[in-house]
Amino acid sequence: MQITQLAPNVGVEIAGLQLAEAEGDELEALKQAVYTHGVAVLRDQQFSPEDHIAFARRWGGIDINNYFPLEDEHPEIAVVRKKADQQTNIGGAWHTDHSYDQVPAMGSILVARVLPPSGGDTMFAHMGAAYDALPQDLRDEIEGLEAFHTADHVYAPDGIYAQTDMGKELRGQELKTGAVHPIVIRHPRTGRKLLYVNYAFTINIVGQTREESLPLLQRLYDAALLADNQCRVAWQPGTVAIWDNRTTWHNALNDYPGYAREMHRITLSGEALAA
Ligand SMILES: O=C(O)CCC(=O)C(=O)O
Ligand SMILES: [Fe+2]
Question: Which is the closest atom of ligand 1 to the Cα of 261?
Answer without folding.
Answer: 1
